[in-house]
Design a protein that fits this description.
By secondary structure, this protein is α/β, with parallel strands linked by helices. The protein contains 5 helices and 7 strands, in the order ββαββαβαβαβα. It is globular. The protein binds guanosine-5'-triphosphate and magnesium ion.
């Protein structure tokens, strides 16, 4: 699939104020700084569409981007940013929880994991909660330009083993680099497949 048009629509802290046109949407979640906003820019080919920063905690709102006048990509705030303080973290967590539980248009949630790290408790807990709330998701390992293929294989194998402790089956898994524009076709084809399957 080719993205011909990507347009910022609205930012919110309140999922009830998100677009109400019923179009399907695909959201990106993960720890602060994992590369959610950068990935949206890479997928759409529009630098600066979603705001990025080398400092964690940049995205604080639910941001809707309308793609090809047909469906949405949604940039979410990151979870678990320690320097935000307890109150700040709780506020962001509430925004995320409300979005995930209320947003019926959410068709697939992409959970981003930094491929450089070994399995992290906060990510595993988040993924396990998705199972309890029955939210369809896929996993994206980000920043693959930062480590060797051998180390990537090692970290991914560890993650998969951890997930298989609680899941019978693994979700779809993608590998991306916003820096080297890798993984774009794979992620966009997956979205296209779902769009087609849902709209018939
Ligand atoms: P929050 O909005 O704070 O939750 O962060 P985010 O997940 O949206 O991360 P963001 O896209 O702002 O990127 C964080 C930092 O990681 C920035 O300095 C990016 O340039 C860098 N980054 C993101 N993706 C990649 C990647 O694939 N490769 C490399 N080398 N750097 C990346
Ligand atoms: Mg962001």
């Amino acid at each position: 699939m080719v993205i011909k048009k990507a347009e910022f629509i609205i930012s919110n802290t309140d999922s009830s104020l998100c677009p109400k046109d019923g179009r399907l949407e695909y959201a990106f979640i993960g720890r602060s700084n994992v590369g959610k906003s950068s990935l949206i820019n890479m997928l759409t080919g529009v630098k600066g569409l979603a705001l990025t920063s080398s400092t964690p905690g940049k995205t604080q709102l639910i941001n809707h981007f309308l793609i090809n006048d047909a469906w949405y990509l949604v940039d979410l705030p990151g979870y678990g940013y320690a320097r935000r303080g307890k109150k700040g973290r709780e506020k962001i967590q509430q925004i995320i929880d409300a979005y995930l539980s209320e947003r019926e248009e959410l068709t697939c949630l992409f959970v981003l994991l930094d491929c450089r790290h070994e399995p992290q408790k906060i990510d595993l807990e988040f993924i396990n909660q998705l199972g309890e709330s029955d939210i369809p998701f896929a996993i994206i390992f980000t920043k693959i330009d930062k480590i060797s293929q051998r180390k990537l294989n090692e970290n991914v194998a560890q993650y998969k083993a951890k997930l298989l402790e609680t899941w019978d089956e693994l979700p779809p898994v993608f590998y991306t680099s916003a820096e080297h524009k890798k993984g774009k076709d794979e992620v966009l084809s997956y979205i296209e497949e779902i769009n087609k399957a849902v709209s018939g």
